[in-house]
Amino acid sequence: MSVSVLTVLCGCSDPSLPPPTLGVKDWKPSRAVGGSLEVRPLPPADQVLEDHRKWVESSTAPVARFYETVLVAPNQHDFRVVVRRDDTPMGRPEHTYVSFIYRDATNGSYEFSWHRLGRQNADFLKLGDTPKQVWTRLNWRASKPDLPLLEIVAFEGLRPDRVFLAEPGGVRTW
Asked: What does the CA dihedral 12, 16, 21, 22 come to, rounded to 10 degrees?
């Protein structure tokens, strides 16, 4: 059987997600799979990596750990959207990647990122007149000590449509 026929039969021809649902009031995730959910205020940029390390080591229980902060437009810089095809076991679907630098005079600079399967309009992530509350997850492997990388996992007004997995705590050995 050819790959294209097999793809049609499996319904795997376009794995893109529909556009995000905006304007919802209930945007904060309420649970995590495999453990509890914890949210803390985002510390200053130069303290994020150490804070996260201590947070993970504080308990061996599985926890989905998120930082919460409020973003305002004047601090958002270098807003970038990239759509590219990535190799996956299901083919080469398009992915939309968004990133921007957030410079806070008091807390320092952070890099924020957002990702969604498919070609998406990410204009809602451009901050406007209204401050936006966000939940983020630290990408501690890709972070730099002077520029932590934070993945946006929940954005004020955006319907949460993903599963949040709890990760084990304790001392990292990798």
From this structure: 180
State the residue for tokens 């998120």: 66
Looking at residue 44, the DSSP 8-state letter turns out to be P
Report whether 114 contacts 120 (CB < 8 A).
Answer: no
Per-domain residue ranges for the chain? 15-155
Q: How far apart are CA 76 and CA 56, in angstroms?
A: 29
Q: pLDDT tens digits, residue range 55-103? A: 999 999 999 999 999 999 999 999 999 988 877 666 777 888 999 999 9
Q: Which helix (H) or strand (E) holds 160?
A: none
Q: How confident is the model at residue 162 (pLDDT cuts 50, 70, 90)?
A: confident
Polymer length of the chain: 174
Q: Which of 111, 93, 130, 89 is nearest to 42 (CA)?
A: 111
Which two structure tokens, joined as six digits, stand for 1? Answer: 């059987």
Tokens of 97: 């990647």
Within 8 A by CB and 6+ apart from 144, the residues are: none
pLDDT of residue 30 exceeding 60, the answer is yes
The helix or strand, by DSSP H or E, that contains position 151, with its residue range, turns out to be strand 149-155
- Tell me if 134 sits within 8 A of 71, measured CB to CB: yes
pTM, two decimal places:
0.83
CB 79 within 8 A of CB 126: yes
